[in-house]
Amino acid sequence: MKRYLIILFIIVLILYSCSRDRPKRLSKIKGNLNLQIDSIIIKSKGKVFKAEGDVLLYNSIDNILLWKIKTDTLIDYQDKKKSVFTPLELFYFDSTGNKLLDIKSQKGILLKDRYIIIAIKDVKLNLVAENKHLKVKTDSLVSFYKKYITKAYPLYAEVYDKNMDTLYLIVKAKFALLKQDSMKIYLKGNVFVKNMLDSSFLKTENLIYSYVEDKIVSSSKVFFRTKEGNFIEGEGFVSDRNLHKWKILRNIKGKFINVDLE
Asked: What's the whole-model pTM score?
């Protein structure tokens, strides 16, 4: 009898160790939020849920994927309707299922009742569309995923060709708002745009950049250096992305160094 008890005890130990080592898979559906976990550690205490491993959270409507989050550690505070991700990898998709943009940061927060995703610490955003590649760095980023709006504070952006072979523009601003449906970026505060191929640049306080149309528009005062090296001030500005085909609308004055009189 004692021998059988020892054998039974050994079997229980083996089963317990296997259950700990085997990745656990869990699926929860709350509204349109779906949680899928391949994890070696899952803990739950009261209304706090924690998972470590390969964690995937995604949002879909009518089987159309809108966005998904990948992380190593998820802490879900059910009473606060908040989830914390360390790190955060957020991917947005268009209506056809193609990836529209991705956001990566050291930490992310999902506020479920307000439909907001916050990315903080070493935030990087990548957007590829219309044969262009936009790379953004910022300190903090707030994404209102039901409104398709993303805000960044501050903004440093680089615009490349799709294959990342050529850097066209550098863009800086204190604040940026990206409307993902219209693919327009609204910039405010110490806005600086520089063409890296010919050193022309623009300084202003407010600017709208249409990513699809490759068009820059400002209604504020501007200080502009042309590719020829002329310096012009005025109010209101319209240009292509490269700052080549441009127009200053009013109150124009400047210093012209290189002028072709023919």
From this structure: 0.77
